[in-house]
Amino acid sequence: MMDWGETAKAFDEVTKHGLERNEAMDLYTIERLSEIYNGCGPEWLPPKFRDMLTKYFYFFSAAFLVHDWDFSILPKTEKNFAKANTRLRNNCFRLVYKKVPWWNGYEILKRTRQAFIIWRVCARLGRSAFFKQPKV
Predict the structure, then answer these.
(1) d(C-alpha 15, C-alpha 59), whole Å
(2) CB neighbours (10 Å) of residue 106?
(3) What is the full per-residue pLDDT of the chain (136 aa) written as tens digits?
């Protein structure tokens, strides 16, 4: 669970950069989204480690918010697991190309590499987090 301020910043980026999401997410209050949003990493990670990952990958916090919403709300099927991870990948790449100036090749390469790693880790290791009992 993240505080309201961090959740509000992440949601502002979701809307500002036009991240892919389910329309129903827009109907949730910041308070409710902050209950769903846990930053970077599954809930079973120790909080200190998850906080460290969240700070390191802060650039992608808006994509993590959408991903956490998907993991919490979507029906638990293989198709939805793949959909949530594809959406994470697309949103991470969108953030790179929306937030990093086109002329900063090094930063684009660095952030693109991070986005790819985040996506692969979630796609390969996120199954247990997705198929757990829903919070709702």
Answers:
(1) 15
(2) 8
(3) 788 999 999 999 999 999 999 999 999 999 999 999 999 998 888 989 999 999 999 999 999 999 999 999 999 999 999 999 999 999 999 999 999 999 999 999 999 999 999 999 999 999 988 998 555 5
Q: Which two tokens stand for residue 2?
A: 């993240």
The SS3 assignment for 132 reads coil
**Cα gap 122→36, rounded to integer Å:** 17
Closest Cα to residue 61, out of 9, 21, 98, 20? 9
Instruction: Tell me how far the alpha carbon of residue 71 is from its chain's centroid.
Output: 10
Domain ranges of the chain: 4-130
Helix (H) or strand (E) holding 27: none
* CA–CA separation, 104 and 107 (whole Å): 6
